[in-house]
Design a protein that fits this description.
Rossmann fold; six-stranded mixed sheet; six-stranded parallel sheet; 12 strands
Length: about 270
């Protein structure tokens, strides 16, 4: 069964579960186990699940892993700080919308790259500049960045080298063969680096630590997940069609009536 991210209310707990209780509002991920497109989902007691901030609605809680990935790349891998220039390529998706907000929170000057339909959305999230990908190729511009966060493999390290500063970092969420070779040789040669990370494969304890930071920002109103649209479970095919169009702003969410979870489909 498909579906890897969820939000909902705890309906029951096993005997050994102590950190969660029936009635808790929670969100998390089942990873490769799937199973979230259903009224109920079963999570191990030591799995990736945590209570939600009180100010977070269920539809906005389901796609939290996008914000988690943004935290992993920008805070843990690139260590973005005040005054740096960060470009987010793919700024209108679930990871991209979170990355724009997080980079601004960290004090960076942020440029977002997206399609024409989502320019206003990316501006509203705090981007200092927005590039319409249909009109301009950022890799051919003169501007230089300390960090290029390339989401979904929209570009490549080879193409982005010319827009990186001397010590610039290229971040990729796409696990293609090229990025692994580039990580190897950039770790030994030159000053610019290529970095890939599979956030969902990190140890649960490490991801939960990242999630605590994300929750803190959400609770403080400094970070929000962006929902493009919600579809009931019986219209899941329409949800996939909407996501596959490629012009969504944020995440397409699948909702489940009753006491079950809300399952998320990346948009």
């Amino acid at each position: 069964m498909l579906g890897t991210e969820f939000s909902g209310e705890v309906a029951a707990t096993g005997r050994g579960v102590t950190r969660l209780a029936v009635g808790d509002r929670v969100f998390g991920s089942t990873g490769s186990a799937g199973g979230c497109y259903a009224e109920y989902v079963c999570i191990p007691g030591d799995g990736f699940i945590a209570t939600m901030p009180a100010n977070l609605p269920y539809p906005e809680g389901a796609p939290v892993c996008g914000a988690l990935a943004a935290w992993n790349f920008l805070c843990d891998k690139a260590r973005v700080g005040p005054g740096q220039r960060v470009l987010v390529n793919g700024a209108a998706g679930d990871i991209g919308t979170a990355a724009i907000q997080l980079a601004k929170h960290l004090g960076a000057e942020v440029t977002g790259v997206c399609g024409a339909a989502n320019v206003e959305l990316v501006e509203s999230l705090g981007a200092d500049a927005v590039i319409d990908a249909g009109k301009e190729d950022f890799t051919r511009a003169r501007r230089r960045y300390d960090v290029v966060f390339d989401i979904g493999g929209g570009s490549s390290f080879s193409r982005c080298k010319t827009v990186l500063t001397r010590d610039g970092i290229y971040l990729s969420t796409y696990p293609g063969p090229a990025i692994f070779l580039q990580m190897l040789w950039t770790s030994r040669l030159g000053r610019r680096r290529a970095v890939f990370s599979a956030t969902g494969l990190l140890p649960v304890a490490e991801r939960l630590a990242f999630l605590d930071e994300v929750k803190r920002l959400i609770a403080a109103g400094e970070l929000r997940t962006v929902v493009d649209s919600c579809y009931p479970l019986d219209r899941i095919a329409d949800a996939y069609r909407r996501a596959d169009r490629g012009d969504t702003g944020g995440t397409v969410v699948v909702t489940v009536d009753g006491d079950g979870p809300i399952a998320e489909q990346p948009g």
